[in-house]
Design brief:
Shape: elongated
Structural class: alpha+beta
Low-confidence stretches: 1-13, 96-119
Radius of gyration: 19 Å
Largest sheet: 5 strands, mixed, barrel
Number of domains: 2
CATH superfamily of the largest domain: Nucleic acid-binding proteins
Mean pLDDT: 81
Distance between the termini: 26 Å
CATH architecture of the largest domain: Beta Barrel
Number of strands: 15
Oligomer: single chain
CATH topology of the largest domain: OB fold (Dihydrolipoamide Acetyltransferase, E2P)
Length: 230
């Protein structure tokens, strides 16, 4: 499966609530934005690896008054404020929650801009994982990232499923999972709530505990229909 998009490559769940710039007193320090260079009222911003410049530009456009933000050469160019003033404003702009969900849907060209990451509430996940025949709980032992958002996550099973895969996905077994993303042609459909949920898999780390609703196996690697850090 090819999983790439020129529009959105932001790990939504992983970066939820992170400020674009952090302030140490009056001194700006890197957040999602890692470097900046300004001249007059034009400032060029570099975003961290894995973050999507288009999404950051959209967040700035929505969160900072009287500026225009666009992507040029992989960087975000903001006009309308001098560097010091802009960086202070960016400290008040966070990536996360329903704002990011709405921006993702706007970038994907969907009409349902009112839904967001919050559509996958804890109650929804609880119902999803209540089916123990097709779900398991495990501990991450390895993460093999490719080009965002491609990733294969190895999970050691702590609670095995009760269904037909119980013998293979048995307690103690180490199983590889690949998150499933809804596709629209060659691009990831970022307006899909399960896709939004699964983007966080790219930023999982060893020893994270996860719940996995799994699908089919392909050459020993299972689909992770939904993977959730618990």
């Amino acid at each position: 499966m090819v999983m790439a998009s020129a529009l959105v490559a932001l790990p939504l769940a992983a970066l939820a609530g992170e400020a674009l710039v952090k302030m140490d007193g009056d001194k700006p320090t890197p957040g999602v934005v890692t470097a900046w260079s300004g001249s007059g009222t034009k400032v060029e911003l570099t975003v961290k690896d894995g973050a999507d410049a288009k999404m950051v530009a959209d967040a700035i456009q929505a969160g900072v008054d009287k500026v225009k933000a666009k992507v040029q050469g992989g960087k975000v160019v903001v006009t309308g404020k001098a560097q010091d003033e802009l960086l202070k404003a960016l400290a008040g702009v966070e990536l996360g929650g329903e704002d990011i969900g709405a921006l993702a849907q706007a970038a994907a060209g969907t009409d349902d801009a009112g839904s967001s990451l919050r559509a996958k509430k804890a109650g929804d996940l609880a119902k999803l994982f209540a089916d123990q025949a097709t779900t398991l709980v495990g501990k991450v032992t390895a993460v093999e990232p490719g080009k965002f958002p491609e990733v294969v996550v190895t999970v050691q099973v702590l609670r095995a499923p009760s269904g037909p895969e119980a013998n293979t996905l048995r307690k103690g077994a180490k199983i590889k999972f690949k998150p499933v993303y809804k596709m629209k042609g060659p691009a990831v459909e970022f307006g899909d709530e399960d896709t939004q949920q699964n983007l966080g898999a790219y930023y999982l780390r060893a020893n994270d505990q996860v719940r996995v609703k799994f699908g089919k196996s392909n050459q020993g690697t299972y689909e992770a229909i939904v993977i959730d850090r618990s």
